[in-house]
Design goal:
five-stranded antiparallel beta sheet; alpha+beta; about 25% strand; 2 domains; 10 helices; SH3 type barrels; eight-stranded mixed beta sheet; about 425 residues; Fumarylacetoacetate hydrolase, domain 2
Length: about 425
């Protein structure tokens, strides 16, 4: 007998309220500057430590400062996962309180100034304890382009437009932004070779992704309906699932990625909450010629406002560029409204439809987010046609895939009429030999 979702009642999604007021200003002056990633309308959560012997603390980014929530006497825990497990109503109340006390003219300014931390004085951590990590495949443009390289005659497998494709990744190798990682080793097999060899990857790539964090979990055996799905999401972050394409090409059949993916994934230190994203919602529109989602993945609320408009860009700085004092160059840019074939709510619902229990802090990767344009590709594999057409950088260097010393940077932000721009910060990582 088919398992039914827990409910079909429409649950409210985070709505626009006084915390989004574009006229609201903070007594943290830097938060009011145009283009600031962390204005008072954002208030993303992260985890930091003051040194190797200090326990992690929970902070909220505001302008060029971090508010230590325990020092501000707002919480009595340093465990981000505990905070994430709170009900959406309690999280919204905490956001409202933080916003009010950071607003210009607040009577708490003098008290809270002592709870402010300079980012340069702390080390940012992975934002929460990630117990499990699932990577999805939500960009049909990426799936088609990459599929064409592996299967020229059959690039998009028949199940793609019916089911949110995903695989389980390795949570232990997720690292915070700024931490370098070593080039992976693994088996590869050249087309003209009789046997594979073991060695360092020669086709190291990045993947432009978003990471959606689970807030409240669900009990094992209790699926989450599409109209309840967002009640289980805490927020979003930038995510780079580094990929060894040559190792991937040899190992991915029949069970999918393994060593080509589990050596490192970089996550931004800041989680932008679902509440902060409320002004940047978008309609979920599927091409009329495509199959429409099955009923368990379909609702009017998801159609009306289940998607989000998040601008994304990829930048590269080579070792030579750093030596010459040259800034990173942009490789590509896109927007989730053009890149995503499935909504975050649909990912949660599909992940749990079989009874799988999600836990606070679990991470759902979006998969590589590539738009329809040639300059919207979310990986070098797409930008260079599988390495056959290297790109030439502004300083004359060429790249087919990443080389040792390369630093790759992901950035993201949201903009909409009548709303203050908010940012996701950045996620960066450097390849080591």
């Amino acid at each position: 007998m088919a398992t039914k979702p827990t409910t079909t009642t429409t649950a409210p999604t985070a709505s626009i309220n006084e915390t989004h007021d574009p006229k609201r200003r903070s007594w943290v002056v830097s938060a009011n500057e145009p283009g600031c990633d962390f204005p008072i309308q954002n208030l993303p959560f992260g985890t930091f430590s003051r040194g190797p012997r200090h326990e992690p603390r929970i902070g909220v980014a505001i302008g060029d400062k971090i508010l230590d929530l325990r020092a501000a006497k707002l919480i009595d825990t340093d465990d981000m996962n505990v905070l994430m497990a709170a009900t959406p109503e309690k999280r919204a109340a905490l956001r409202s309180l933080i916003s009010k006390r950071l607003t210009k003219g607040s009577a708490r300014q003098t008290e809270w100034e002592t709870a402010m931390v300079n980012p340069s004085a702390v080390t940012m951590q992975v934002p929460c304890r990630i117990g499990d990590y699932t990577d999805f495949y939500t960009s049909v443009h990426h799936a088609t382009t990459v599929g064409r390289q592996f299967r020229p005659d059959n690039p998009l497998l028949p199940n793609y437009k019916w089911v949110p494709i995903g695989y389980h990744g390795r949570a232990s190798s997720i690292i915070p932004s700024g931490q370098p990682f070593k080039r992976p080793r693994g088996q590869t097999k050249a087309p003209d070779a009789d046997v594979p060899t073991l060695g360092p990857s020669k086709r190291l790539d990045y993947e432009l992704e978003l990471g959606w964090f689970i807030g409240q979990g669900n009990a094992q055996g209790q699926p989450v309906s599409i109209d309840e799905a967002e009640q289980h999401l805490f927020g979003v972050t930038l995510f780079n699932d580094w990929s060894a394409r040559d190792i991937q090409g040899w190992e991915y059949q029949p069970l999918g990625p393994f060593l080509s993916k589990n050596f490192a994934s970089t996550v931004s230190p800041w989680m932008v909450t679902m509440e902060a994203l409320a002004p940047f919602r978008a309609a979920f529109e599927r091409d009329a010629a495509d199959p429409q989602p099955l009923p368990y993945l379909e609702s009017q609320n998801n159609r009306d406002r289940g998607a989000f408009s998040i601008s994304l860009e990829v930048l590269l700085q080579t070792a030579k560029m750093r030596e010459d004092g040259q800034a990173p160059v942009r490789l590509s840019s896109t927007n989730t409204s053009r890149a995503c074939y499935w909504t975050p709510g649909q990912l949660v619902t599909h992940h749990t439809v079989n009874g799988c229990n999600l836990l606070p802090g679990d991470l759902l990767g979006s998969g590589t987010l590539s738009g329809p344009g040639a300059d919207e590709a979310g990986s070098l594999m797409e930008l260079t046609g599988g390495g056959k057409t290297p790109i030439t950088l502004a300083n004359g260097e060429q790249r087919a895939f990443l080389e040792d010393g390369d630093t790759l940077i992901l950035r993201g932000w949201c903009e909409a009429a009548g709303a203050v721009r908010i940012g996701l910060g950045e996620a960066s990582g450097t390849v080591q030999a």
